[in-house]
Specification:
Blueprint (H helix, E strand, L loop, with lengths): L9 H6 L2 H19 L5 H20 L4 E3 L2 H10 L5 E3 L6 H11 L4 E2 L5 H13 L8 H11 L9 H9 L11
Parallel strand pairs: 1-2, 1-3
Length: 177
């Protein structure tokens, strides 16, 4: 090697490899073909299912409050388009007092705690104290948990996940004219 010449890295050699170029061309052609014949991706299907569940949650939230863990969960649900009452758990009260207040104010609520360890513990505690108020809407949380579980463990990550899966920002709610 002459003085002043730089040794090329394995990455540089790989980038200029004809094999890699042909693989990229094949992937590009495949994506064009998939687009032309409307091949439905699993991510797009998952985004559609999430959108359906969130639309159902939107419809329920027009009548009933959603209980979440914190402010960032509220912000995430607002970003998705939920417009009804969303109540944060940590408002300076203990769990018992918080639940007593809810039972006095509402006949039903939606519990939407994160599905990480802390969220599951909070969910069980609230569920025990709010027996009869939340069970009807439990499937909404369960379906969201199943659809999001491999990627995120919290409500605040939902807008980003939806955007990644759908390829664009996703909102629910009433259509604007």
């Amino acid at each position: 090697m002459a003085r002043g010449e730089m040794k090329s890295s394995i990455g540089d050699k790989r980038k200029s490899s004809p094999k890699l170029r042909s693989q990229k061309e094949l992937c590009f052609r495949h994506s064009e073909i998939s687009h032309d014949i409307n091949v439905y991706s699993l991510d797009a299907e998952r985004a559609d299912r999430l959108r359906e569940v969130l639309q159902a949650l939107y419809d329920v939230n027009k009548r009933l409050p959603i209980i979440v863990e914190g402010k960032r969960d509220v912000q995430a649900l607002r970003k998705i388009g939920l417009a009804g009452e969303i109540i944060t758990l940590h408002g300076g009260q203990g769990i018992y007092e918080f639940c007593e207040d809810l039972t006095e104010r509402f006949s039903h609520v939606v519990l939407l705690m994160d599905w990480d360890d802390k969220g599951e513990k909070l969910f069980r505690s609230l569920a025990d104290h709010l027996t009869g108020l939340w069970e009807e809407f439990a499937p909404l949380r369960e379906i969201l948990r199943v659809l999001c579980q491999k990627d995120i463990k919290d409500i605040e990550g939902m807008p980003g996940l939806l955007e990644r899966l759908a390829g664009t920002a996703v909102t629910v709610g009433e259509e604007t004219p």
